[in-house]
Every structure is written in structure tokens, then in C-alpha cells.
Amino acid sequence: METILHIYHPKRHLLLLEYAIKSPSSSPSPSSGVALSQTHSNPPNVLLFVGGLYDNFRSPSYVDDLAALFLRDTPNQKWRVMHVQLSSAGKSFGLYDLDRDVEEIGTAINYIRASVTQSPTSPVVLMGHSTGCQDLIHYLVSPLKNSKNSSNSRPVVSGAIFQAPVSDREAIMRDVNDDQATRQAYESCLSIAESTPKDKHAMTILPLHISKQCLGPAPLNITRFLSLASPGSPDNPAMDDYFSSDLSDRRLLDTFGRIGGVAHLQASKHTGEISSDLGHSSEVTGRSVLFLPSGDDEHVPTSIDKALLLSRWTRAVESGGAASVSPYSQIVRHALHDISGSSIEARTARLVEMRGSVLRYLDHVVGDIFEEGSGVSTEKGDASEHSGQGPWAIYESDRHAIEMERGVSGVRL
Questions:
Q1: I want to staple 26 with a disulfide (CB 3.0 to 4.6 A). Which of 22, 117, 137, 141 is the partner?
Q2: PANTHER family attached here (predicted)?
Q3: Mean pLDDT of the chain
């Protein structure tokens, strides 16, 4: 798989990975001395991926499946997929916070427009996975550091996709309640935090043999532990606690409810009533976000009603009338947290359900997904026979292959 690495933050040695996948029929890759422009298209639109805890490039693996839709040797390709590496990537998540993540995402977007697309107006859509969703909502609605103004200085984005947004606190507390060793470790971490001066929290690493019971084998400072575990919730949620099911409506209005007034989220290209493939219509106004919770997410306690939680987020987003949750949002059936798996159900979740929603959303907020003359209806999801290697053609080919393997027709899109 061909990729390109960019250094977007030289001081911190942070990279952007750009997918440059070619069609199978393409000739072998040229030598590195050949200019990129001679062998690849230069798409103006960017889907920028932000991973979760422990993720780094090509993790989760479904980012490869998204990138496979956008072949770079296809004439007039309009989209590219990039993955941003943050200081908190991999096992470093416990040393940094969402404020730093957001700062670096903004730096990456500025770099993309200055050095990759070479246009200050290139559309960028953010897609977060797991804790990466916390980065996205923090990017949209958190105040600027050392400023009372919550917008205007962050680079503008055209959309935000939340895949597998979950509560780290609820996942931690499930393990605390189910396992005595985890409970003891959690209480030890709290005790250390309480006995450490607050101004030392960011510089104090919890003993790894204790903290790994709660959040795995990664160094964890007190500040990030308290942010992820958020012991003051739901009344006093910490920085990371955006997606817990027990947060009040007031808290949701103060986070999701502010999306409609965010200057650095552009209004969608298309507005008005649109119908999803799930059989319902929605009035889309102004700014739009896409939610794709995983239906079989192993990190979500079984007691949580995912549909109810999604409806609460939706009400909060749409409360002011200036933003909407995309009708292409859905709880992805049979999807694990990272939508992995090789069964037909897992591949349908990953290659059909998730990618179908992403493609339709990208076309809604920016455009340039559906081929002219393809007969594609974004409302009903049907398509006439067409050829080519555009993103929708590749998606349809994969969907048809899964349908044939299943041995039935009419896989719901």
C-alpha cells in the first residue's frame, strides 16, 4: 500500500500519513525520484482521520478501507485520506490532553492547506474514532486556551464524523465494578492524585503497575487519569467526559448544543430536507455532523441504550436550529468498537454500512463523491449500472461482492 509521510510539526517531529493507493491495474510504483504530480492526482478535498487511545498510523485498520475508495490514479479524483499523528498517539496518550491534541490538529490542517493542497480554502472533514471523537468535539466547542473566545482562530473544517464515540469513564467504571484488582488500582490512583499538589499533576506519572489495571500499559500522568476517569462526573465532568450516558441535558447543551454557533465549522453545501437510506427524512440546516456509534461496541456497557443516547446528542446539536445531525447517522449494526472482523456481518458493517454513510455525508457537506451520469441517488442509495473507479463505483462493487457472497439480494444500504 503506497503512502506518503509529511512532517507537519518539525519541532515536535509529528507526521501526517497520506494514502496514495492506486488501482490494481496500475503499473508498478515509480522510483522515489519521480514527482508526485506525475503519477497521482492532486485532490482538493481532505478526509482527515484522528485515532483514539493507543492508535497510530493505519490503526484502526478500517482507515485503509476508507482510503481504498479514493484511488489516486483515477482521473479527477477529488478526495484524499490523511491520518494525523498527535503527540498523544500510541502509548503517549497519558502524557497529554485534549487541548494539545486540538492545537496539533489545527497545525496539521494549516500545513495541509499550505503544503499539500496548496489552497487556503481546501475543504477538510475531520473523522474521529473512539477517543478521537473527544478531540473532534473539543476542537469544535472548547474555548481557545488562554482566551474567552471559543472560535475564529481555529482552522475552518467542513464537517465532523464521530465513529464509535464512547465514554472512557463508563468503560473504566464497568471494569472497576466487575474486577476487584481493577477497583483497588483505581482507588490507589485516586489516592495518589488526592495526595499530590494539583500543580504537580501534569508532571507526576502514576506507578505503571497500578495504572495499567485501569488504562493499560502506557505511562499515565495524574492530569490525564483524572480527565479520563472523571471521578467528579456527572455533576462536574472533566475535560474528556463528553459522551457519558449520565451527563445532564444542560451539559449536552453546553457541548453539543454549541455546534450551531461555531465559526470554524462551515455550513453544509446542501440544505433542506433529505431522506436517508434508513427510511426517514430530516431537515438539514446549517452545520452538520455525522454520528456512527458501533452497534456491538465492546467498550460500551450493555446497560446503556445507544439509540436513546444518540437521540439525546441529536436534540442537543439541533436545539438552536443552526446545526443538524446528518440523517446518514446510524448505529452501525454488528459493528465492534473498531468495526473489525472477517465475517460477512462484520464486513457489511465496515465496508457497506460505515463507508456508505461516510460517502453520503462527504457528498452532502462538500460534494465531489458521486460521478456525473452515474444515476446515483443520495436519498435512496440506488444506482444505475456504471463503470469507473470513483469512490461510489468502488463502494458499489464491494457491496455487490458481499451481497453475492451472502447469497441474497437487496443488502440494506
A1: 22
A2: UPF0613 PROTEIN PB24D3.06C
A3: 90
